[in-house]
What we know:
Helix content: 25-40%
Oligomer: single chain
Strand order of the largest sheet: 2-1-3-5-9
CATH superfamily: NAD(P)-binding Rossmann-like Domain
Largest sheet: 5 strands, parallel
Mean pLDDT: 90
CATH class: Alpha Beta
Distance between the termini: 30 Å
Number of domains: 1
Number of strands: 11
Strand content: 15-25%
Shape: globular
Amino acid sequence: xxxxxxxxxxxxxxxxxxxxxxxxxxxxxxxxxxxxxxxxxxxxxxxxxxxxxxxxxxxxxxxxxxxxxxxxxxxxxxxxxxxxxxxxxxxxxxxxxxxxxxxxxxxxxxxxxxxxxxxxxxxxxxxxxxxxxxxxxxxxxxxxxxxxxxxxxxxxxxxxxxxxxxxxxxxxxxxxxxxxxxxxxxxxxxxxxxxxxxxxxxxxxxxxxxxxxxxxxxxxxxxxxxxxxxxxxxxxx
Length: 237
């Protein structure tokens, strides 16, 4: 084995700088051409449980389908013989984030995200810095078993969409998120959103990370708390 980390993050390349910072001196590679790495890590997605529709505290044994199944199988084959960690990630909050968190942040910034008082939809989330901490822990020998280890990862808080929007707004010079308090206002908000956006903002998608907490004694910082309390300076990503 070499002093390298095999990293595959097809939908979360923006997390790599966080991992590099957590593992100074470790070379991050995308294949095994330079020898067998010390650890292989794939940042997979909870979309493996279905990218559309509601999900409530799904665990690793939940039914899976779609392209992420084949991606995980292919990575497991590539990393055969190497300690391997596959993390099924929900919404990842970070500099350069993509997907739902970016879309929500952009809507908050533009002032086009509105809070519906009856909306209690929740989203599992995790900050990239905690993914990096877990990868560093695994690199130091923290995997619970040899071979393949697959886990969901989330902050365990599963914030409401509104709480996540408010935390993002706080980082934007404490921008204001408007509440549509009356029925006519809520009707107008749903009209502005359209059916697809209304479903996006009002559908619960949460995933259990109980197995990760039990096997690796690791629980990330709640994302909303991180956004509100982390001291961002020139060294922050």
